[in-house]
Queue: 2 jobs
Job 1
Amino acid sequence: MSNKLFTFHKIVAGCEEGSREAWEAFLADYTPIVFQLSDVYFGFSPQKQNDFWRDALVQLSTSNFETLKRFEHQAEREFLTDLRDFLLEQGAEKLDPALDSTETPRPTPEAVLGLLKGLPLLDQEVLFFKLCGYSDATIEKILVTTPAVAQKWLERLRAEYSPLLAGSDDRCVWPAAWAVVLRTARKAKTEGCPPLRHFVRIHEGGFQWHEKEPAEEHVTGCLHCLSRWTALREIWHWRKQAKPRPADEIDALLSALPLRTETKARKTLFKRMFG
Ligand SMILES: [Zn+2]
């Protein structure tokens, strides 16, 4: 783990200097996650996914990597959560509400809060992932427990959202409406919301009992925090599942970035950092 964190910090530091090697490593690690998210949340075709990521990389790197530098750098999970938020914001602009499914009522933040109200945390997590568009099989892997152990969520969905129960693909059925729910959740931060780091510690098992219970109780009553709590689990699942992308795809993405011309001395320095 410490090795991985070490590598993550070096990679991001190198990216902010425009190093080609660092960006190669960044794109190799994170492109599979970005494609996975854009598949689930936007339903983009492979070509559109590629164009979307390329545009996002341009955004991340303008003004001397200003946006990238704003992301949390403390730990990889927090960094990836910021990257995910950024991507969901970017993608939301490209969604057409006319393409949303009309099989069920379109979700609104109020409707989602109503569905979640009073449920235990595990049920809320399952239900939230279901609304995101995840299949039972993927939810089982993300939560490392079968959704069947949490049953109350099922009754809530059955009334109006039964088409979601049968889905075997990981694909949101109303990307535009769900993007509004997620954006509302992102903006609903209150003074009582624990820092993301607190959730990371709980997920990694490095918490004190007196920290865990109040935090979990807060999450069950706060859409902003449930959204971040589940995002942390989701992003880490896809991080672990990531499969390498073809080298020519990574090369094409690199061409979108303002990379530094590598001098021999700088190259050596970077190799020392990695070595
Ligand atoms: Zn909160």
Job 2
Amino acid sequence: MDQKYRDVEQFLPAAPVCIQNGFDIGKNTVDLGFKIEFHKVAIVIKCEAGHPAVVAVASRDARPDTAQKEQIAGFTGKGIGPNGLGSLVYVIRHVTKILRWAGLWYLRFMRYQSLPADLYKKNRANFMAQMKPRSIAAFFSNDIYPTSADGTLPFKQASDILWLTGVDQEDTVLVLFPDAHNANDREILFTLETNEELAIWEGAKLDKAQATAATGIANIQWTTAFDRTFHRLMAEADALYLNDNPHSRARNIVETRTDRENAALRANYPNYEFERSAPILYGLRAIKSQEEVDQMQRACDITKAGFERVLQFVKPGVMEYEIEAEFMHEFLRRGSRGFAYTPIIGSGFNACVLHYIENSAECKAGDVILMDVGAEYGNYAADMTRCVPVSGKFTDRQRAVYNAVLSVMRGAMNLLKPGVSLHDYHVQVGELMTKELLDLGLITADEVADQNPAWPAYKKYFMHGTSHFIGLDVHDVGHWHEPIQAGHVFTVEPGVYIREENLGIRLENDILITEDGYVDLMTHIPLEADEIEAMMAG
Ligand SMILES: [Mn+2]
């Protein structure tokens, strides 16, 4: 077996049991994730929550030699104790170095811990189960979008092909044909041909063996073979599933690779039946698997770290963009590639501008800063909003508005459960908000009595929705008109915006719907006004 490419499945059967001072590495390996052996040193890496952390380093010798000790110390920042004991070390920040050292270079390839091929196999099987007989589906990666001259935006994979394959690479095509006569034709992945030149300039792309290991697809071909292979398959098919982007908020003003390829396929095969992949994907992608929840939890954890850093940083006179930089610093150093969406850091009146992304003003004593910020991790999004007082203490009025929003947030979370309609939920949240705004004296009972049901009185101060699906996309796909199901993940984000008081408060957490309620993925992020003040003081 190639030393450079050992994954959990390949490696576990060969793992010898090794007990060091009560820490049974062989036994724990299954729970922990995987183990790398190098010479006589074992490193146990835990993959919980989708990110690797070294949990133990142990020598298999009773007395490790000096060279071994030095090697381990060099890569983990921790020595190993006498007697070769497996010293427990929590050295997340050294993991990348260890993986490189151990030859797991494919993990160097991507900054984040990728999800297992079995997940993608299952996702494709679920999609294919809903296809009509004798039909083919084609999915395309995003292009790398140009800016000016020879500039480009950073590559961002199209979420559907990512969800079906895990391949985070441009020039990728997936073809699914469950009824293909030849079993080898039922799933085919086309990837960008890697070569020496590409490796020198951009770094190598997945080779065929790596693509198979990452996706669970046996038949990997170079993208240049797509037209010929696809034409051969179409001879056996009656219908073709094409993908599109029917997201209600999407502005489809740029032709994507999917649009371009769809147009070509429609022109080349005008007499076939065409079907749409998106409705199937909306149903499937909205239900998160445990692996995806773990990845989203990691994004939330990174977001938490950013927020805690910011609580130490905020003081009168800091610029909104300096706060943005603090978040970014914490995100990048934790393996995120940055913000999951353009962050909003708005102090004072800016908090009332719902899509304020200038982040250019000075934060003044007495103002509250609204921060709508989330990290991405492994392409999954976190979406958090917190509001903090610039000078470290809320005024009584600010605190009253803050607590009103918090109360609506908690009430809203309790409404979200399987079977509930998102439309009814939004009506009920509106009722909760109406009560709070009456108590704050922002609206009157007369205004409520006379309100237009299409635009109730509370909308004057809370004019946006309370929840949206979240996942690979921040405003993720899902069937909005169907009842809520276990496995959905939503934001809960009520807000009150009082322009005349230069005060905007929004609070937002991400929650996973379970059989009997929800799990708050951000429950560990400071939320109560007292907590925020205490952390800013300390
Ligand atoms: Mn949101």
